[in-house]
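residues and backbone:
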Amino acid sequence: MKAHPVLAWILLLPTLVILGVFVAYPAVNSIYLSLYEMEPFSGRSFFVGIENYRDLLTTASYWHTLRITLWFTLLTVIPSVVLSLIAALALDANPYCRGVLRTVFLLPVAISSAMAAMLWIFIYNPTAGYLNYIIDCFGGKGPNWLGDPHWALIGVVIATVWKEIGFNVIFFLAGLSSVPQELREASLMDGANRWQRFWHVVLPVLSPTVFFVMIVSVINSLQSFGQIHILTGGGPAGETTTLVYKLYRDGFQYFRTGYASAQAVGLFILILLATGVQFRLAKRKVHYG
């Protein structure tokens, strides 16, 4: 029995209202604000056209921030996806203590980004932190993880990867549960080793999950803010200032609303391009059904 069109629209109305208020309106308003420059505290605005975009593309600091953002995304997405896939495969293959190990991997997901960042501040402490203590025990000398421009981005990356692994493991475990057991048994009877079974049996079935996790991980990395704000505040020397953090500074600290809105539009375009590239590259690698 087909639902009446009016009833279908009524059922969709709450979702459409929420999407309109919290997604569509802010997006359209950002585009509108990017064409204006506002005076702080006065509320007066002046139409400047594409001047904010011109300033954005001709500023060296913006391109530096874009480079840091791309490096941050690359360094967080690849390790988090690979490590979470390895963890999910290990949990799927070993039924013993699976519940305990699953809880260990999912604990970072349960805590907020602020709490996770505070935990890593203690771990990274150059004098009393556990990480440098372990390095010292092996005869090395740990760096100032969050205060050294050469190490700060790596420190934020490690904390982000640790936070994201548990989230990815959830989806990989769900994807592994859909791999038919008869396919695994048939490949085992054919003499396939562990790597061959993974590459030719498990991975093709798991490819939609891997694709989804990659898309979500890239978007999350490009939008990362909380851990950067707490761990480094964009420093030192701007070496951990990503596009989102620069947008926050220009919009809420320097009150350059139009300029920050132009950055928001630019970030949206970057996410759109990154997602489109992934769809293009994965078109022939993802197998559905």
User: Anything to note?
Assistant: The chain has one domain: 60-281. The two ends are 27 Å apart (CA to CA). The CA atoms of residues 4 and 150 lie 62 Å apart.
